[in-house]
Amino acid sequence: MNITLRQLRYFRALAQELHFGRAADKCAISQPALSVQIRELEDTLNLELFERQPRALRLTLRGEEFAERANVILREMDELEDWATSTRGTTLGRLRLGIIPTIAPYLLPNLISQLTQAHPQIDLHVRETVTPRLIDELMDGQLDAAIVALPLDEPALVETPVFTEEMVLVRPKTEAGAPPVALDELARMRLLLLEEGHCFRDQAMSFCNINPNRPRGGLDGSSLGTLVQMVGAGIGVTLIPDMAIDVETRSAPVCVNRFAGAAPTRSIGVVWRATNPMGPALQDLVPLLQQAAGYED
Amino acid sequence: MNITLRQLRYFRALAQELHFGRAADKCAISQPALSVQIRELEDTLNLELFERQPRALRLTLRGEEFAERANVILREMDELEDWATSTRGTTLGRLRLGIIPTIAPYLLPNLISQLTQAHPQIDLHVRETVTPRLIDELMDGQLDAAIVALPLDEPALVETPVFTEEMVLVRPKTEAGAPPVALDELARMRLLLLEEGHCFRDQAMSFCNINPNRPRGGLDGSSLGTLVQMVGAGIGVTLIPDMAIDVETRSAPVCVNRFAGAAPTRSIGVVWRATNPMGPALQDLVPLLQQAAGYED
DNA sequence: CGCTACCATAATTAAATCCTATGAATATCA
DNA sequence: TGATATTCATAGGATTTAATTATGGTAGCG
User: Fold this and answer.
1) Of the four, A70, A177, B37, B233, which is 20 to 30 A from B242 by CA?
2) Chain A closest CA to B163's CA: distance in Å?
């Protein structure tokens, strides 16, 4: 046989009341039900917890020791339920967030401060790497969510757009004042791009109708900052997202041009496993992300 | 609804295996039974403990926190059962022992040393007072057992004889060498007795056919030691039990005579509430008492 | 000596839990 | 791509557990 919580609760009532009738009332059951459960508890333990006298009911020495242990367990059960009540809802306890390198430097400073302000208790872990890797780690359960360029087309992930950012052309400062170029003119310029693996590289290529397979002669950089420095050195031109302008063009002899006509854009969003119960809490995070990106309305 | 231990056990298994089928095997139940219990647990908590993916089952952050609490509780339940197993039997944990004053000084020194030797862990409390008070305190549950003169004729108490002790006559040393007296001669001697309340007084009176109601002129003492000193001072004679001879006659000018013919005796035994579950353990104590009294065979 | 208080036992009913069978979704492999 | 396997969820009937009401027994009390 087996000790049950029910038996512990009944025992506690009886140990307090020292009277079967009153203890049964306290438990909202009939007196025989209590008698049976107490006796079964004693049988299970093979131990007498109460000394039954015609007029007086008493705890035995072992009954008292048992009561202490039982009360500890029952209290912990209560605390377990309290914990469940207090922890449910959309509170974020731990957030393991992935983010692509072409957004991280511009978004993270604001994001982290907003996030810790809105959720003071949050345990935030940030992982910066390229999209395929983020996807893997999401799927593995190593990450809870990731900020990436949409769409991903992963059926197991839900995508929520956060903002759309415009691409701008970065040219050497010597060309300042030159007229805005159209998108299709880019193919004829020496366009500097990020290394393979970065989604931003692929996006830029597709904007400009560049053949992804054609070899390019040393025109790849490992970060947007590097690319801008290369532009400043007169090696070519590059594209950067709107958001990167302030940070990246401050320390290089370059100028920025918006495109003539419809500007190329990319959609940035947050993704997580569709099965992740944090979903609602992550959804609540979207306005905060927009605010951090300066795109809140 | 309510969290059950069963649910915690099933949860623990699933948290370890992260696979419904294997966890169910571990619990020796079918997989649907496990599914249902886990779901009901989550419903009760209103909290998702597991993230179910087609291929992979994972604990949520809250699931991990829950697991820690659940494991604590389950471990304490196990310990509770272990405790019950280890503590049952006839081990004496605490013994609250009453004893009458006409035995205490002669028996206790031996008894305590024997008892603590046989039960090193024992928590021994001794209460020395007269029989009616011991009975009250036994009935109240303030004492576990008492060493008294039998019989008591209390239906709620069980009596177990331990030894029978002989009464001896104490006379002034000046009468040393006098011939043994017979019991019925005592009525004509100035017999010193204990104060009222002591059973030994009543026993002595009944031996000598003294009318208990007849007033006695200042011939009462508060202890056997006092009585013997009074005898030494030539005030009268007294009776003491066998066991007291060594201790009490050492420091007084008295001599001891056994009676001619059948000596008066009293039966000393241990009593406890019939309902006291310690009964078997107390029964086991009898040989030890006999040994302490020097009556073991 | 009957009455009352109190706990135990018995028989029946209600509830909880389990098992088998089956369904649905996804991954795996030909 | 379609068939198969894996895995978890759901449903219905059976079983076990625990409750209720009714009843019995024993000790104190007037």
Assistant:
1) B233
2) 28
pLDDT at B154: 84
R_g (Cα) of chain B, nearest Å: 33
For residue A81, count other CB atoms closer than 10 A to its CB. 13
- What are the structure tokens assigned to B218, written together? 């200042």
Contact A72 B76 (CB under 8 A): yes
Mention every residue, 6+ apart, whose C-beta is less than 8 A from residue B110: B291, B292, B293, B294
Output the DSSP codes for B141-184.
Answer: TS-SEEEEEEP---TTEEEEEEEEEEEEEEEEGGGTTPPPPPGG
* Residue from A44, A64, A69 to probe the interface with B (highest B Cβ count within 10 Å): A69
Can you read off the two tokens belonging to residue B221? 């003492």
Task: Write down how long chain A is.
Answer: 297
* B244 and B214 inside one domain: yes
Q: What angle, 0 to 180 degrees and rounded to 10, lies between the N-to-C axes of helices B286-293 and B104-118?
A: 130
The number of distinct structural domains making up chain A is 3
| Domain harbouring A125, CATH code | 3.40.190.10
The closest CB to that of A84, out of B45, B73, B87, belongs to B45
CA distance linking residue B196 with residue B225, whole number of Å: 16
Question: Using one digit for the tens of pLDDT, what is the confidence trace for A216-231?
Answer: 666 788 888 888 888 8
pLDDT band of A92, cuts 50, 70, 90? confident
Scan residues 136-165 of chain B and list those with Cβ within 7 Å of strand D: 155-156
B222-231 tens-digit pLDDT: 888 888 888 9
- Nearest nt to the CA of A1 via C1' is D17
CA of B134: how far to CAs of A28, A77, B9, B162, B167, in Å? Answer: 39, 43, 49, 18, 23
